[in-house]
Amino acid sequence: MKMADRLGLVKPSATIAVKQEADRLSAQGVDIIDFGPGEPDFNTPANVKQAAHRAIDDNLSHYLPTLGLPALRKAIAARYLRRYGAEYSPDEVIVTCGGKNALFLAAMALVGPGDEVIIPSPYWVSFPEQVLLAGGRPVILETAQEDGFIARAQAAERLLTPATRAIILCSPSNPTGAVIPQDELSRFADLALKRDVCLILDECYEAFLYDGLAHATLAREAGRLRDRLILAGTLSKSYAMTGYRVGYGVAARPLIAAMAVVQSHDCTHPTAAAQAAGVEALDGPQDALAAMLAEYSARRDLIVSGLSTIPGVVCARPAGAFYAFPSVTGLCRTLGVADSMSLAQILLKEARIATVPGEAFGAPGYLRFSYALSAERISEGIRRFRALAVR
Can you name the CATH fold of 62-283? Predict the structure, then answer.
């Protein structure tokens, strides 16, 4: 059977593919240390789970508005006002099936054939693919390890053409952990206004910043950028709710209305009980976030120090998220390995370590290590990696 031509433009998610292969080997009894998935290894907080149970018991089991549960949209809008001084009404919020869905709705609402979208590299694997599925063309903005992988507005401006529709930013970044400073985000806002383009900010990892760093966000620019800004977030990472599939988009009414049109013909809305749990996540106790952040901070130190002891591996210290993104070009040369894709395959086969190669993020020569796993497993994984590297 002939499939749609659009499928020839995109590749399956590399991160999901790594998880599937690691799960397949684990099911065969192989002890795989899985640094691949971007998924918290913590349990969903008890109060959030209890809220989901209550919603089921209360028969919250029928259709909701396409924009989402009103109480949840109100909680999201209130959170942006409380944290960032950004005034959005509940009808300027759409609840989506995870942050990924919010970003896809934005692409479908904004991008059409011939449109260009600037995407900093290294990028999250789905950014270019979503643009391609919408009929657009990804334009890659290179960032440098020496500059902390920070996207710069001045460099983005050089890539603008009359066809540029939007710029997608991710901070804290998946895969690098880079954090775009607030003053740089202000320069992106200046650029968007000057050149009439939209900005999409993925801030799914906003709860995970280290060393006392505060989250920088384009929400602080909403007053002047309102009609060309989409903020995308999720409860998946912050509250260990990946399976609940609750994310959101925040934007001006015309943008949210356009995203809602797409969602109305797609999933209609996320599961009702999951949305009720989301209200509790945002409005209830926040102790779990602080505990997770403290643990991730310790794990970050552990994995960065461990990777840095491996000859041929250079690992920068991420400022946010929960990924280490070391350069492995030196190790590839030492081992006579062609590229980081080949090294990832060797690590999985011989060292029983699952990682995601940098090629998936537009950054050959790197590997992504998620440290959303226990300190004991991280230490064992580093031991296996080092043993392979110095054999």
Answer: Aspartate Aminotransferase; domain 2 (3.40.640)
d(CA 355, CA 18): 7
User: Would you say domain 5-43+287-389 falls under CATH 3.90.1150.10?
Assistant: yes
pLDDT at residue number 30: 85
- Residue recorded with tokens 């209830």: 284
Is it true that 5-43+287-389 and 62-283 share their CATH fold? no
Instruction: Please give the Cα distance from 49 to 273 (Å, whole number).
Output: 10
Provide the residue ranges of all domains of the chain, joining segments of one domain with +: 5-43+287-389, 62-283
Query: Taking phi first (over 0 means left), then psi (-120 to 50 degrees means alpha), and beta for anything else, what does residue 275 get?
Result: alpha
User: What is the dihedral sign for C-alpha 43, 46, 49, 51?
Assistant: negative
Closest residue by Cα to residue 88 from 253, 239, 236 = 253
Find out whether 366 and 354 touch, Cβ atoms under 8 Å.
Answer: no
Let me know: does 125 contact 328? Beta carbons within 8 Å.
Answer: no
22 compared with 359, residue with greater pLDDT: 359
Three-class DSSP labels, the chain: CCCCHHHHHCCCCHHHHHHHHHHHHHHCCCCCEECCCCCCCCCCCHHHHHHHHHHHHCCCCCCCCCCCCHHHHHHHHHHHHHHHCCCCCHHHEEEECHHHHHHHHHHHHHCCCCCEEEEEECCCCHHHHHHHHCCCEEEEEECCHHHCCCCCHHHHHCCCCCCEEEEEEECCCCCCCCCCCHHHHHHHHHHHHHHCCEEEEECCCCCCECCCCCCCCHHHHHHHHHHHEEEEEECCCCCCCHHHCCEEEEECHHHHHHHHHHHHCCCCCCCHHHHHHHHHHHHCCCHHHHHHHHHHHHHHHHHHHHHHCCCCCECCCCCECCEECCECHHHHHHHCCCCHHHHHHHHHHHHCEECEEHHHHCCCCEEEEECCCCHHHHHHHHHHHHHHHCC
Q: What average pLDDT score do residues 321-334 get?
A: 97
Q: Residues 135-194: pLDDT tens digits?
A: 999 999 999 999 999 999 999 999 999 999 999 999 999 999 999 999 999 999 999 999
Q: Distance (Å, rounded) from C-alpha 40 to C-alpha 231?
A: 22
Q: Which residues pair with 30 in a beta bridge?
A: none
